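TL;DR need structure tokens for one chain.
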Amino acid sequence: MRREVTALVSTIAAIPLLAGCATDRNGGPTSTPAIGETTSSPTQETPTTNTATTGPAFAANTERQSQRGSGAGLVLTDVRVAQAEGFDRIVLEFSGTGTPGWVVNYVDEAVLEGSGERVALAGSAILDIYASGTTWPAPGYYRGPSQFTPVDGGELNDVYVGGTFEGYTQVLAGLEGDPVPFRVFARSAPSRLVIDVVDEERG
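>> reply
TL;DR here they are.
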């Protein structure tokens, strides 16, 4: 498993991810579909008792987490945020069969891979999220806001949907305070990537 994870991380580092794929903040055309520039939150996620308790244990540290997925050609359709007891949740939902892989870690700056564009993101801790096995262009691709402030996000202050390029989808999240432990897991029917971050004030 260690060898597979290393290979996945090396692949992500080697290819020009998300080059020029973000919506231009001045309204100019880009290679991403027309994601709107708004500060309102899209659909709110409501974690149920089942989804809140059946995920893996939270990591004991804040280090990078990665995993291979079973899907290919998954299409991002929704990005949403919610609060639950003890944690805040980000969900990336996809159409297609199988589940996405992922690489998730804290970074010093909010930067779109490939283009190197820096994103103005509210929050002192920045979580960089990559979902693998994804594709664009495709019918039904995400048409929500490229950047939004969650209405019910807890410690999650800001979310930026970077877009999809060469099989990878990037989302950046700004958190209040210092980096905290998190957990990442995938679910199917529909395919989705779930990122839970510890909310110490609600724990």
